[in-house]
Design a protein that fits this description.
This protein has one domain: CpcT/CpeT domain (Lipocalin, Beta Barrel), CATH 2.40.128.590. It is 17% helix and 36% strand.
C-alpha cells in the first residue's frame, strides 16, 4: 500500500509540474512522425494502459468528496501503428446502466513521445451501454457517423524517465455549457495500473463551476 501511495504522489507531482507549463508548448506545430521516428513499444504500451475497466472506489473511501466512478475503455475497430479507437463509458458505480458520459476516442500517433486523443460523441448513445469489443453493434458504427468535439483534444506526452504518459487539453479551446461553464479542461496521467483524470468546467471569468477541486480522480485498473 505504501508503494502505491508513494507512486501516486510522485505521479501527481510530475503531472502538476508538467501542467503548470503545458499550455506554453507548441504542440500543435509538431511535425508528424515518420515510420523511422516512431517507437512502437511506447505506442503499444499506451494502448494497453488505456483499455480496460477502472474504478475510483479506493479514492472515494479515503475522501468522501469523490464519487465511486466506474470507467470502461473498450477497443473497437482495427488498430494500427497510426491510430486506434476506444469506446468510453463512465458511470456512477451504483448506476452502471445509466452512464453519464459516452464517447469514442480516436488516438493518433504524432511522434515518438507525443500522442493526441480526439473526442467524439455517438449517435443514439444508449444503444452502446454495456457493449464490449466483439458486440456486433460496433460493426455498424462508422467513424463518419461520429461528431467531433472540436478543441477538446487531449495531448499526451510520454516521459521515458518516469514511464508516465501525461498531458491534457489546451486553455479555452474546449467549449461547454454545462452548469454555467463556458469551457472545460481535462488533465490526464497514465501508468500501468492507474489513470488520473481531472475534468473541470470554467465560466467566462475563468472561475471553476464544476468538477473536483482537490485534484483528479484516481481510476485504479481492475484485473
Amino acid at each position: 500500500m505504501s508503494h502505491r501511495l508513494s507512486l501516486t504522489t510522485a505521479a501527481a507531482f510530475m503531472t502538476f509540474l508538467f501542467l503548470s507549463c503545458y499550455r506554453t508548448l507548441p504542440i500543435r506545430n509538431v511535425t508528424p512522425a515518420t515510420d523511422s521516428m516512431r517507437v512502437f513499444p511506447v505506442w503499444n504500451t499506451l494502448k494497453n494502459y488505456m483499455q480496460g475497466s477502472f474504478s475510483s472506489q479506493a479514492q472515494s473511501k479515503r475522501d468522501s468528496t469523490y464519487f465511486d466512478i466506474r470507467l470502461r475503455m473498450v477497443p473497437i475497430w482495427e488498430s494500427s501503428n497510426e491510430v486506434f479507437y476506444l469506446y468510453v463509458e463512465q458511470a456512477i458505480a451504483s448506476s452502471l446502466d445509466k452512464p453519464y458520459r459516452q464517447r469514442v476516442y480516436k488516438v493518433e500517433n504524432q511522434s515518438d513521445t507525443l500522442f493526441v486523443s480526439h473526442i467524439y460523441t455517438l449517435p443514439q448513445p444508449a444503444r452502446f451501454i454495456g457493449k464490449s469489443s466483439n458486440d456486433e453493434i460496433f460493426t455498424h458504427l462508422t467513424p463518419d457517423s461520429l461528431q467531433l468535439k472540436d478543441g477538446c483534444e487531449v495531448y499526451l506526452h510520454f516521459d521515458p524517465h518516469t514511464q508516465l504518459y501525461f498531458g491534457g487539453t489546451q486553455d479555452h479551446r474546449c467549449p461547454s455549457d454545462r452548469n454555467g461553464a463556458s469551457w472545460t479542461t481535462s488533465e490526464v496521467m497514465l501508468q500501468e495500473d492507474m489513470m488520473v483524470s481531472w475534468d473541470r468546467g470554467w465560466n467566462a471569468d475563468d472561475k471553476q463551476v464544476w468538477g473536483a477541486e482537490k485534484g483528479g480522480y484516481e481510476f485504479v485498473k481492475l484485473k
